[in-house]
Amino acid sequence: MSKAKPKVAFYWCSSCGGCEESIVDLAEDILKVVAAVDIVFWPVALDFKKKDVEAMPDKSIAVSFINGSVRTSEQEEMVHLLRRKSQLVVAHGACAHLGGIPGLANFWNKDTIFRTVYQTTASTDNPDKIVPQEKSDVDGHELTLPRFWDTVHSLSQIIDVDYYLPGCAPPRDLIINAVTAILEGKLPPKGSVLAPNKSCCDDCDRNDTKPEKLAIKEIKRPHEVLLDPKTCFLAQGIICMGPATRSGCGERCIEGNMPCRGCMGPTDQVYDQGAKFLSAFASILETNDEKEIERIVSTIVDPAGTFYRFSLPSSILKRKRMEAVK
Amino acid sequence: MSNGTFEPRLVGFLCNWCSYTGADLAGTARMIYAPNIRIIRVMCSGRVDPQFVLKAFREGADGVLISGCHPGDCHYKEGNYKALRRHRLLSKMLEQFGIEKERFRLEWVSASEGTKFQQVCNEFTEQIRKLGPLNLHQNGGRHEQGQA
To answer: pLDDT tens digit string along B84-128?
Structure first.
C-alpha cells in the first residue's frame, strides 16, 4: 500500500536552458528525486502538453519549478496555469528570481529590440523589414504568435511565488536541499530565498587578502590585466559584486579567477542590489578630489549593466524610462 | 499639478549639521523661496543610500537634492566626500536609465547659508520646470503590456 508520490512540474520561460541543465546536473541524485516524485510536466525532457496540465485538478501538483523571466503573453498564461495547478511555486534560477540576463532588455523596448534583431545587425538580410506579427495570414490560414512585451518581469511580478532558488544556474547543493526540504515538509517561511543569508565575501577564500581599508585608485577590467589568482578582486581594482551578493553559490566564478557578477542577488536586508553595490563601490574610491572622482567614474564602462547584470527587472527603477528609449 | 501647469515635485535629503540648519535659517529669516521641495533630514549626506534616491524618483519625484556640509566641514569628517563619490557615479548610472543628470543635484550648504539654500531651491525648481515631469511612477508597470 504505497502513498501516491508527490507530483512535480518543471517549466521554462525566457531562459537559456542552463536551469534545466542544473536539474540534469544533479547526476545520480536525480534518480533519488525521480524515485520520490512523479514528474508530470517538463517540456524540455518529457512529452506532456499544456492540455495535460489543464486536465489536472487545481493544486494537484505539489511543486512547480519555474525558470526564466516573463516577457511574452504565452509565458504569462503558462505561469498562471501552473500557479493554479500547484501547491508550491519555486522561482528556479536568477531569471525567475530577479529577471536575470534577459532582464537587461529593460534598457530597451519591443520596437528597438525588434529593429536591432530583425533589421540592423550585420548578419541580418531582411530587405522587406519583416518582423514577427502576432497575427499573420498564410494561404488563408491565420497564424498567431505570443505578444512580446516592452518590459521583462521576474516571476513574482506576475504570479505569487513561494520560494526562490537563486543563482545562474542554481548550484546543485541548493537544489538538493530545496527538494529535500519540500519532500520532508521542512520549509522556511514563505517568500524565503533558499540560500544562506550572508554576503559572498563572507565565504570567499580571498577574504583574508582583503586589506583593512579597501582603496581603489584605478578601475581595471578583467581582460586588461593579469589577475592574481589569490588576491581580493576589489584590492586589484576589479569590479567584483561580492559585497552586495548573496553567498551559497560555492564561489565558482572566483575559483575560475573571475570576479563575482552578482547572479545570486542581494541578501534579505537589501532591496536593490545595484544601488547597494554602487554605494559600497563609490565609497572605496581612493580620492576626495572632485575632478579625480569624475575621472575614475568616467572609466567605469556601463555601471547600470554591470551593477544590475542579473537584477534589473526587480530593481527599484525596473527599467529605462520609457520616454527615453530611442 | 493643477490647471495643466506643471509644478515640480522635489525631494531634498539634508544633513542635520549644516544643510538642515541652513534651511531652517532660511525659514526663520522668512526668506521666500519655491515651495516645491520636500525636505528629509538625515544625520549626514553620507547616510543617503542610493536606494533612497531611486525610491524618491520611483515614487514620483521629478528631482532629488542631496545637501551636506562643505568639503572639510563634515561633522563625521568625510561623509560628504562619500556622498560626492556616490553622486557622481549614481548620476552617470541614472543617465543610462533615461533620467537626466540635472534631476539629481548635490550642493554644499552650511548652517549660515540660508540665502544659498533659498537660491538652490529656486534654481533647482526652475531647472526641473524646464525639464518637465519625470513620469516614472508607472514605468515598467503591467499597463505597458497592452501596447504592441
So the answer is: 999 999 999 999 999 999 999 999 999 999 999 999 999 999 999
A320 at interface of B, judged by CB pairs closer than 8 A:
yes
> Mind listing the domains of chain B with CATH numbers?
10-138 (3.40.50)
A288/B135 Cβ within 8 A = no
Which residues of B are less than 8 Å from A73 in CB distance? 145
Shared-domain flag, residues A157 and A264: no
User: Is residue A190 assigned to a domain?
Assistant: no
Q: Give yes or no for B4 touching A (CB within 8 A).
A: no
Q: What is the pTM of this model?
A: 0.94
Q: Around Cβ A186, how many Cβ atoms within 10 Å? A: 8
| Total number of domains constituting chain A | 3
Q: How far apart are CA A145 and CA A148, in angstroms?
A: 9
What is the span of the domain harbouring residue A294?
Answer: 200-307
Please state the ipTM of this predicted complex: 0.94
In chain A, which ranges are continuous DSSP H helix?
18-24, 29-36, 50-54, 73-85, 94-98, 110-115, 172-184, 200-203, 252-255, 273-283, 290-298, 303-307
pLDDT tens track for B45-68: 999 999 999 999 999 999 999 999
- Looking at CA atoms only, how far is residue B20 from chain A in angstroms? 23
Hey, is the C-beta of B139 within 8 angstroms of any chain A C-beta? yes
Residue A71 sits in the same domain as residue A169 = yes
Interface test with A, best of B62, B76, B87, B97 (most A CBs within 10 A): B97
What ranges make up the beta strands (E) of chain B? Answer: 10-15, 37-42, 63-68, 104-108
Residue at A320 is within a domain: no
Residue A315 lies in a domain: no
User: Does the beta-carbon distance from B86 to A278 stay under 8 Å?
Assistant: yes
- Residue A209 and residue A67 share a domain: no
**Residues of chain B neighbouring A276 (CB-CB closer than 8 A):** 49-51
What gap in Å lies between CA A234 and CA B78, rounded to an integer? 21
Q: Do A272 and B51 touch (CB under 8 A)?
A: yes
Chain A positions touching B81 (Cβ under 8 A) are: 288
Alpha-carbon distance B19 to B26, whole Å? 10
